[in-house]
Design goal:
Blueprint: E1 6-7, E2 18-25, E3 33-34, E4 38-44, E5 50-53, E6 56-59, E7 63-68, E8 75-78, E9 87-94, H1 97-100, H2 109-118, E10 122-124, H3 126-141, H4 145-160, E11 165-167, H5 178-193, H6 200-206, H7 211-222, H8 226-243, H9 248-255, H10 260-271, H11 275-285, E12 286-288
Parallel strand pairs: 1-3
Antiparallel strand pairs: 2-9, 2-12, 4-7, 4-9, 5-6, 5-8, 7-10, 10-11
Helix pairs in contact: 2-4, 3-4, 6-7, 8-9
Length: 289
């Protein structure tokens, strides 16, 4: 079932230790996804947003910090009831191998215990967040690779000593509901045909639904009609390609936009900036160590 969940491709290579994203954003756009890297994710200024970790779905407050140490645990952040347009997000992704080889040493016992719990995703309380936040902010600015790795280890140790953390998901691998399976089947169909003209009847047929049933299903489960769903899918896919620094002309072709000018128009209307500006911002916000 997990084969249909979006599998994120991190910019992290085997020769890198970890990657830090320090982003300002106006909304959450990434789909429910998994990736082989472990992830520490801090969100500030998005009260009312929805956090999804496995089968845990919660509304977050002004500051939210979670650690996910499981390549198969689905997760995402959604707008939910969030009204803020100035969201600060710091995400650290790192290879499990960076830390696994030393977890059996007694000096790392508390970190090992933290990672065992983080296989279900763990949430940190206010006291721990306030304690580690200065170190987290410093880490986003550290340019020396060696010192950055040492600070990441210190950060993980401080998190492991926190007394206000709790597990989120009830299991490390999750079964999907029937509606989730149908939405993932639709996403898989759209993903494989995104650079072509996709019509509602063909999409409805993929889910073995009539046009009217399909239209109701999309509206009830995404709060969008099918046209808006397709455009939203293409824009989000384009954002992921832009983050990977794919040339804009190639993004247009890969994501099924009619022309570069049309792409610029709908992207700016949706995100408030041009594709080129978005790509340039991503370059500035990404630090690979």
């Amino acid at each position: 079932m997990l084969s249909d969940i979006y599998r994120e491709k991190s910019p992290l290579s085997e020769l890198d230790c970890f990657v830090v994203f320090d982003r300002r954003k106006s909304s959450f756009t990434f789909p429910v996804h998994i990736h082989p890297e472990y992830e520490l994710n801090y969100v500030e200024g998005a009260p009312g947003a929805q956090r999804i970790i496995g089968d845990s779905i919660e509304t977050i407050g002004h500051k939210d910090l979670v650690l996910i140490a499981n390549p198969e645990l689905k997760h995402a952040w959604k707008d939910g009831e969030c009204k803020s347009t100035d969201i600060h997000e710091i995400t650290i992704q790192f290879h499990p191998s960076l830390i696994e080889q030393i977890l059996d040493k007694k000096q790392f016992k508390s970190i090992q215990q933290l990672f065992n719990r983080a296989s279900k995703g763990v949430h940190f309380g206010t006291a721990t967040i306030e304690k580690i936040l200065p170190l987290l902010r410093i880490l986003t600015m550290e340019k020396d690779g060696f010192y950055a790795v040492m600070k990441l280890f210190i950060l993980l140790y401080e998190l492991s000593k926190g007394e206000d953390l709790r597990e989120l998901s009830s299991a490390t691998k999750m079964e999907m509901t029937s509606n989730e399976l149908l939405l993932q089947k639709l996403q898989n169909y759209v993903s494989h045909n995104v650079n072509q003209l996709i019509r509602l009847p063909e999409a409805a047929n993929t889910l073995n639904m009539s046009r009217s049933t399909f239209a109701r299903f999309i509206k009830c489960n995404t709060n969008m009609n099918f046209t808006d769903y397709l455009l939203d899918f293409r824009i989000n896919m384009a954002m992921r390609k832009l983050k990977e620094l794919v040339p804009i002309a190639d993004v247009v072709n890969l994501c099924g936009f009619n022309s570069v000018s049309y792409f610029y128009r709908v992207f700016k209307k949706a995100k408030g900036i041009t594709p080129a500006e978005f790509r340039d911002n991503c370059k500035k916000q990404q630090l690979i160590v």
